[in-house]
Amino acid sequence: MNDAELREALVSAAYLEGDFVLRSGKRSRYYLDKFRFETRPDLLGALGERIAAAAREHEPEAARLAAPVLGAVPLAAAASLSGGMPFVIVRDEAKGYGTANRLEGAYEEGELVCLVEDIVTSGGALIDAISAVRDAGLVVRTAVCVIDREEGGADALARHAVRLRPLFRAGELLNEEKTPAKPHG
Fold first, then answer.
1. What is the CA radius of gyration of the chain?
2. In 10 A of CB 82, how many CB atoms?
3. Mean pLDDT taken over the chain
4. On the CB side of 106, how many CA atoms lie within 13 Å of its CA?
């Protein structure tokens, strides 16, 4: 699947119109439903290939990927399978049982990781993940996301010394597909 086909498929699968409240608390006339593209093997596979390539390009010394729960985990798994780089999962908070870990998976303190995210709006979820990863002794300078909604997330991450590398920007997705096909439920 080439970039234009993937762009069209993402919009067709995930673009919804209406009145939505985003994780950031902002209201939006449109919503990009990550689960509508992350649960499709054809799209997940293509995204995994591109995320793995972006991680190699923008953070070539990274030892592993790091994915905040829930939406980034399938993306990191697909990228891991495609590029052979292991990953860790970043929980919202340490679990209260078993190992009580906030980061799940093997890693060595001091390793460089590349964050993976689905859709970035304000960057809040990634900023929380950056703190967790750094608290665990890992280094993070780069985050790769599928879609940047272009609503301040890149700037917010930059203030935490992390550069956002989106596969797609909302403006380019939505401008190219002015009348997207209605997604099927």
1. 16
2. 17
3. 93
4. 2
Q: Tokens for 82?
A: 């495609």
**pLDDT value, residue 181:** 42
Mean pLDDT value of segment 46-73:
97
What is the value of pTM for the model shown? 0.92
pLDDT at 179 over 60: no
Residue 183's pLDDT is: 42
pLDDT higher than 90, residue 184: no
Q: Which token pair is 48?
A: 């995994």
Map the chain to HEC letters: CCHHHHHHHHHHHHEEEEEEECCCCCEEEEEECHHHHHCCHHHHHHHHHHHHHHHHHHCCCCCEEEEECCCHHHHHHHHHHHHCCCEEEECCCCCCCCCCCCEECCCCCCCEEEEEEEEECCCHHHHHHHHHHHHCCCEEEEEEEEEECCCCHHHHHHCCCCEEEEEEEHHHHHHHCCCCCCCCC
